[in-house]
Amino acid sequence: MKIRNPESRYDLKLKKKYKVLEVGGGNDPHPRSNVIVDKYSGDQNYHRSGNLKVLNHQQFIEADGECLPFNDKAFDYVICIHVLEHVEHPDKFMKEQFRVAPKGYLETPSLIGEYLAPRDSHKWVLLEIDDKIVMYEKEKIGFKKTFDFGELFLHYLPKNSLSFKLVQRTINNLLTINYEWEDNIDILINPENEEYIRIFTEPWDMETCERVFRKRNKVGETVKTIEAAKNMIKLFTKNKLFRIK
């Protein structure tokens, strides 16, 4: 089930005693991860933005995320950042994470993020709708890459604009889906539901906007903005705010 939408990958509910697995750490592993699993070692970088990186305190294991070499509940928490959109069999991939840990964090590009910064290596596009993760193969919905604004939205603005960082942290799932879970996730893969297909393939009306991005009242909006600003200050003091992701 869904726990919440963290503001970022650094806003996770991780206890110090937790043993943390990261599936697909790639070139930017989460610093809290104890064990890193990646399907590709060396310089096989088609599915990542740079060479494989493992921090000094982390153990690396080369393995396929669809068949993890760990016992049931071997970890307290599992992190998976920008990997699900690449995999061949997302159902098998996520079931393995549910098997090896009772809680976890999933982050992927949203449908909007994929249109702004499209990647040929991404097989799937995703949205969170009604607390569910809904995902379609690009080919199935006729996804077409039009123009790549990745340099702007992935690098320039995160590095240079505090207001952009605040927008990211106050509007859940705008460019990325940030989803913290317990036990499992309700994932719909290529659903035939006409309403979902419409959301992924047709221009959005106000009803769709309000369904995907739920309205908050003025008090809720104020509280969310203040909390996000506090978190940004905290990250800034740790020298992580302007880290390019």
Describe, in plain words, how this protein is organized in 3D.
InterPro entries: Methyltransf_11, SAM-dependent_MTases_sf. It comes from Thermoflavifilum aggregans. GO terms for molecular function: S-adenosylmethionine-dependent methyltransferase activity. Residues 54-104 form the Methyltransferase type domain. This is Methyltransferase family protein. This protein has helices spanning 90-100, 111-116, 138-141, 150-160, 162-170, 194-201, 206-212, 218-237, and strands spanning 2-4, 20-23, 35-38, 59-62, 77-81, 103-109, 124-129, 132-137, 176-182, 187-189. With 245 residues, the protein is an alpha/beta fold. The chain has one domain (2-145, 173-208): Rossmann fold (3-Layer(aba) Sandwich), CATH 3.40.50. A 7-stranded mixed beta sheet has the order 1-9-6-5-2-3-4. Strands 7-8-10 form a 3-stranded mixed beta sheet. α1 links the parallel β5 and β6 (103-109). It is globular, with a radius of gyration of 18 Å. The model is unreliable at 241-245 (pLDDT under 50).
Shape: globular
Number of helices: 8
- Estimate the mean pLDDT confidence: 92
Strand element count = 10
Question: Would you kindly provide a brief summary of this structure?
Answer:
This protein has 245 residues and is α/β, with parallel strands linked by helices.
Label this structure with key terms.
single chain, 245 residues, alpha/beta, 3-stranded mixed β-sheet, 10 strands, 20% strand
